[in-house]
Predict the structure.
Amino acid sequence: MKNVIFAGVGGQGVILASKILMEAAMAAGYDVKESEVHGMAQRGGSVDCHVRYGKKVYSPLIEKGTADFVVCLELLETMRKLEYLKSDGMIIVNREKIDPAPVEAGLEKYPSDIEDWLKANVGKHLVLDTKAALREAGSAKALNIVMLGALSNYLEFSDEEWASAIRALVKEKFVDMNLKAFALGKGLVA
Amino acid sequence: MPKKVMLGNEAIARGAWEAGCRVAAAYPGTPSTEILEAIAADYREIYAQWSPNEKVALEVVAGASVAGARSMAAMKHVGLNVAADPLFTFSYTGANGGFVIINADDPGAWSSQNEQDNRHYARAAKVPMIEPTSPAEAREYTKLAFDISERFDRPVIVRITTRIAHSQGVVELGERTEVEPRPFERNPQKYVMIPAHARPRHRFIEEQMPKLKEFSENSPLNAIEWKSKKRGIIANGVAYQYVKEVCPDDSVLKIGFIWPLPDRVIREFAEGVEELYVVEELDPFIEDHVRALGYSVTGKELIPILGELTPEIVDMALNKKRPASDIPAYSSKIPGRPPALCKGCPHGYVFEVLKKLDVVVNGDIGCYTLAVLPPYSAMHSQGCMGASIGMHTGFEKARPEMAGKSVAVIGDSTFIHSGITPLIDQVYNRGTGTVLILDNRVTAMTGHQDNPATGVTLMGEETHELDLEMLCRAVGVRRVRKVDPKNMLEFENVLREELEAREPSVIISSRKCILTK
């Protein structure tokens, strides 16, 4: 059983990333379940998707303390998902900060110690700078796919399996760009 | 059979299509919206429409059923309140073509004003209700609902919750079976509910209940999975999945037939285990029934009545533990990321002005309800679809001096849903209040659906574009002003004038949603 959380801010494409992972997992013969957030939470709020695949999956939600991977498209959102991570689980996070409304309004502060804290407390973590990859891919909207590419280094699916999952879920005219973004994301992990 | 990863709501649309459904209607409402969207996008054999509200949707579907076609309405839990009037009487008139209602509850109130448990409606309206535990079952149960409806001459409710509607899973796909409409026969004794007809129909449905109960007793939707007999757990919906996840060694009774409940199956299970538990979200619906059958059972003492369940809540409640992690808690404060109006949202200009004038705002349901939060903090009452205008009139009747210091604020789609009758009420009963219709030309909150004011149907056809200004004038409002809220100075001046006017007035704040082209 693999448990993966994708998290970010409404509009970042968290749901598409999780759908591609599900497609790849189903094509590889696994049972798959996922849970996502619609509605009110999408108006610029926090968004997450839980994806689980394995021989047989019951719960569509990941139990706290059992996530193998937390993949975050925004730095702060990682910190809301910490309690889901298992002891030897891995955090993969984009180094981008998006100020929440209370920070923009000057009512609260964006914590400045997140990267240091992860370094000190989470054995397996990657803080990725995705800017160059997104420039090369040609669209900032491909962040979700870049992050999926980074994650792919740690999952069992082949490049071919990922590519056909992307083809199945992305509009045809964006397929090449997304395949490129995926490869660039994969390359971000040394 | 081919398989596909599908959202619970998409699986319901698929099930309806496979079952030969011909007519579907809904009003958008999270977490049910994607059902009709999926039908309109992928299953064009089904005629699909957005209705102005859930009551109309249910009536359209009832009409289609009486006319002989397999038909389906979909709505969120509070939508069934709006449609409760037709529900209770269409329970008497029953079905001709299969008559299915999809009801999506929202434990946790992710996107709703309350957490009501609509299982009570099945019992109260004497309507059978079934509930899937996964997207795969959502497809299967929706198909079955049409069969049950036709077999027992009853509308059938398929209940889902947010965590089924908005979760994805592997769904096996079948083909569509075309079901020709059944003949329509004029039968006023069945379809015209004057008291003389309603009384025998009531008798008929009471006589149907034991037959339905027998069907429930034998239905594979209720399934005992024997394991250790030390502990037995009864569960429904997504809670069943959590139980299977965290209590793999316990015996489980899955309840898929919510109403009528299968007494014999429950007795067999209760008598086969040493300790009996019920794990269900929201109210103790199954638990109370089990207790009434004479069994001692543990339920709401352990399982929260509030909010949504999660695997860790069920794990802690039943096993007194959950998986431990060495990762410490982060001690700095994590700023919240509440949803907010988009940058450049037309509602934002309106609420800037309302905040500046410091008026009391009777609000309504839509994106603009977010104005209750900072930075606007400019909404002071809100309850259900359309309530703003009636509450505004009530304010004025209780405190006449408030008329010039308060407004009702309602979106275009919500106004059409249930704001027109309270506006008629205000005019009829000599109110003098000011109503702001925030006309952004879309049903935005639920994801940008069309409505009667957009001039486009769910199936993408052009249609009459409802003229809100003419409508307000027709009900007797003489002062109707249309203003672009982005011109805040003008908007403020108009608002001041209308607050002072001693007669009913409507200001149509006219600007398209920033997210639409």
Remarks:
- The mean pLDDT of chain B is 97.
- Residues 223-319 of chain B form a domain with the Rossmann fold fold (CATH 3.40.50.920).
- Chain B touches chain A through 52 residues (CB under 8 Å).
